[in-house]
# Entry
Amino acid sequence: MAMNPVRLEEARTGPYRVASLRLAEDTDPVSGTVAWDPARSLWNGGMMLAAVLLGPLYFSWGAGAVFTGLLALTMCTGHSVGFHRRLIHRTFQCSKLLERVLVWSGTLVGMQGPFWVIRSHDIRDWAQRQPDCHPFLKHARGLWWDGIWNLHCRLQLTRAPGFDPGPGIGDDPFYRFLQRTWMLQQLPLALVLFMVGGLPWVVWGVFVRVTAGVTMHWFVGYWCHTRGPQNWLVDDGAVQAHNVPWAAIPSMGESWHNNHHAFPASARHGLYPGELDIGFAFLKLLERLGWVWNIQTPDVLPRRSGITAVRPGAAAVNG
# Structure
């Protein structure tokens, strides 16, 4: 299948590019096979089994507080801000030290290492902008099958894009270390939790938290690509994203996903009144402290072409 030439050019250049992918005219988002991913499957399955079996036995109010606090901290600072808004989309500037701290926090979520997260995100982002893409990439097989695919399998495209996260990321020795040791990053945290709160804190601070964070990320992503209100449509896109208001708090604002598909270079996802975006609020706090700068939002970005407003008043934010 030939790529849409307009979408190919957009993905290659400008603020809305898919930065880590190297695309050619014959790169194909449709043809491919889904295969079992042993490492991630055993990791996700093992964490879930431990959470289900040990969670009820070792619950305490202190363990529950550790679970809630660490889940919120890693999902906000790590996944939402560190991985998504900084490493993938480069929507703000910060020091290298702060970037590494945020990326380490994202690795603690337990989903995978930084390179895997970037590549998986960017392939899905690029493919969904095309006129068609593989069912794996558009959540086309229903809730339960989609969960099995995304938590236990990987997609092998026949003519996949090249992957190069670029200078400052792909050649960063710390990120290479995190990619090699992403599972082991739970061990120092588990040791600290055990020393302070014993086995209950380890069970709820590691096993239950990782299971909740990884499963929630997939579940919210599934809903964001299948149903919910919309402000925008991406012209000729195989997948049209949706906003999922009930998930705004647990996702740290990531569930305003229809807005994000329209303006992927924006650090702010909750663009309209009433759209709570905790990740963006955290960024604004860091800005006030002088730790981040040049935060990108639609009002300072070039006008985005190739999108159509479908809600009255939505178009006012586009340039």
The first strand starts at residue 21 and ends at 22. The first helix runs from residue 5 to 12. The mean pLDDT is 94. The radius of gyration is 19 Å.
